[in-house]
Amino acid sequence: SLEEIQQTSGARVSAEQLAVWRKEMQQAFIDVEPGMTITGVYVPGREARFYLGKRLLHVIGDAQFAEAFFAIWLDPSTSNPDLRAKLLGKS
Length: 91
Description:
Elements (H helix, E strand, L loop, with lengths): L1 H8 L5 H14 L9 E6 L3 E6 L2 E6 L2 H12 L6 H7 L4
Antiparallel strand pairs: 1-2, 2-3
């Protein structure tokens, strides 16, 4: 995820910021097994929330992180434009 954030965010995100985000993501992301669902919720201007099923796993209360993380899939410069189109209902 950090590599994708760097690709879409470029110089707008410092190495120091990425290090902080890495620690946050290690708390938010767990190993998943078949049948498990992790959901990320973008709260514009506020945060990113991550759920395991219906249980809140972790909140990253950094609006810049939330925007950069979800840009992985939604930014026009995403590495997967076909998925972006599907997520935006354009395919």
